Amino acid sequence: MNYSHEFQIFKIITMSKNLILFLPLALLLSCKEQPKQAETTATPATQSGWTKPAIYSLDAPTTYYDDVEDTDFSDYSKLIYEIFEQVYAGKLQAYNFMDGTPLSIDDVKKASNFTDTVYVENPETEVLEMKIVQNELDKNIISIKLKETWHFNKETLQLEKRVLGAAPRMAVIEPETGQIKGYTPIFWVFFDKQAEEQFKKQFNS
Q1: Cβ atoms within 10 A of the Cβ of 162, count?
Q2: Cα–Cα distances in Å, from 62 out to 17, 20, 58, 65, 76?
Q3: Which is it for the CA torsion 88, 92, 98, 99, positive or negative?
Q4: For residue 155, what is the DSSP state?
Q5: CB–CB of 46/140 below 8 Å?
Q6: End-to-end distance of the chain based on CA atoms, in angstroms?
Q7: What CA–CA distance (Å, rounded) separates 44 from 66?
Q8: What mean pLDDT is predicted for residues 177-198?
């Protein structure tokens, strides 16, 4: 009998069994050694390279476009109205501009939609006649205050910005002349949770 040949066969069988037992252990260890992917919780407003938040206003009379003859602000008015729609739908929370208190949907509707009494001259009689006018200011907002932060992306060579919050503003009209005296904010609304918490904190501290 060739014992040497049988020993070689036994050795091969033993190595195969050891390999079968070792493979699951090796796979388990390799899974454990893989590093977990870091979770990104910081918003661009808090990441390095972003500016501190700036607040500025965008108004129809002072907004310039590529065409210097263009004075149409309607694109922006439509976009601002979309913010109102989300407030009316309860998806965005509006806050009082002065004291930071949350506003109800009815509060916002009353502030932006109201009935006014005006006197218009009748061209036939030249007599002033009273007229009831329903003002839907939310559909024709011509001013907005924005809170945003900027970042220059060196990889894409793009100047990026993130709008943190917005405050639609209604025009204050001089009754005698009909001219715009200025603008008053209707509410603040935020698109960034951290900015929203900071806004509330400044009134609760």
Answers
A1: 17
A2: 82, 77, 7, 10, 13
A3: positive
A4: T
A5: no
A6: 94
A7: 29
A8: 94
Chain center to CA of 187: 15
* Separation between Cα atoms, residue 167 and residue 94, nearest integer Å: 9
pLDDT given for residue 46 in this prediction: 52
Backbone phi, psi, residue 10, to 5°:
-60, -40
Per-residue b or e along 129-140, where b marks 16 or more CB atoms closer than 10 Å to that residue's CB:
eeeeeeeebbeb
Structure confidence by residue, pLDDT tens digits, 86-142? 999 999 999 999 999 999 999 999 998 877 666 778 888 888 887 776 778 899 999
144: β partners: 58, 168
Instruction: From 171, 162, 166, select the one nearest 144 (Cα to Cα).
Output: 166
pLDDT in tens, 25-71: 443 444 443 433 333 334 444 567 999 999 999 999 999 999 999 99
**Is the pTM value of this prediction over 0.90?**
no
> Higher model confidence: residue 163 or residue 171?
163
